[in-house]
Amino acid sequence: MKLVLIGAPAAGKGTQAARLVKHYGIAHISTGDMLREEVAKGTELGNQAKSIMAAGGLVSDELIIAIVQERIKKDDCQKGFILDGFPRTVVQAEKLEEMVKLDKVVYINAPDEVMLERLTARQTCPKCGATYNKMFLPSKVEGICDVCGEKLTQRKDDTVEAGQKRIQTFHEQSEPLVGFYEKEGILFEVDGTMPIDEITKAIIAGLDA
Ligand code: AMP
Questions:
Q1: Which terminus of the chain, N or C, has less C-beta within 10 A?
Q2: pLDDT tens, 61-118?
Q3: Per-residue pLDDT band at 135 (split at 50, 70, 90)
Q4: Strand pairing report for 122-124 and 131-133
């Protein structure tokens, strides 16, 4: 099963991707996570991406396409994968078409105000990558990861200012993908304002239909 998840920042892509990979036994490819790892390691790629990410912009198509092209060749992708955060532009989508035949594209849709509110309440575990939300999905002990006990942090781009820019970037550069995949007949849209479990159920029902 080869899937793409699209949606604005904090629409719930990462949360749903984590559940879907467990359900279908496929690989989770988050380009945002991959870039954050490069930034943390201080590689040349990470240094190139760092300021763009912090400001809420997009790294170049060329760079991100090369990363995905390598990633999907790995063994864990043979049974299928979920791309979370890629493609984000029509150029990336066109390139992806040359690489693989997708089964479905899930679009998690939610209004801007909801996403901005969620985004600024988001907390991430720097050690194991688990994500929480102070409003909707709090950790059991405030500020501490349920899974590994690490102190939770806020992403540098989860501020109001960077969040607004990321939502604007989504509308300008990524929203055209909805029409792109609708035309291909593989788009499945889900209401991202529903409770997390309901969204997962709706996606699985849509994918298995
Ligand atoms: P995410 O964790 O998916 O919200 O991604 C965090 C940031 O990484 C984005 O705001 C972009 O700066 C960068 N990024 C992730 N995926 C892509 C992509 N497909 N194209 C360009 N930039 C990306």
A1: C
A2: 999 999 999 999 999 999 999 999 999 999 999 999 999 999 999 999 999 999 999 9
A3: confident
A4: antiparallel
What is the identity of the amino acid at 113?
E
Mean pLDDT of the chain: 95
Determine the Cα–Cα distance for residues 109 and 19; give it in Å rounded to an integer. Answer: 18
CA dist 116 and 164 (Å) reads 7
pLDDT of residue 129: 84
Task: Provide the pLDDT confidence category of residue 209 given band limits of 50, 70 and 90.
Answer: confident
36 classed as catalytic: no
Query: Given the structure tokens 């291909």, which residue do they identify?
Result: 184
CA Rg, the chain, in Å?
16
d(CA 4, CA 107): 8
- Most ligand 1 atoms within 8 A of CB, residue of 33, 36, 53, 174 to mutate: 53
Give CA–CA dist 186/168, Å, rounded: 25
Residue 29's closest CA among 82, 101, 105, 102? 82
Of 38, 52, 58, 95, the residue with max ligand 1 atoms within 8 A of its CB, to mutate for a pocket test, comes to: 58
- DSSP assignment of 71-110, as one string? HTTSGGGTT-EEEES---SHHHHHHHHHH---SEEEEEE-
Distance 140 CA to ligand 1 centre (A): 29
As a whole number of angstroms, the distance between CA 180 and CA 123 comes to 32
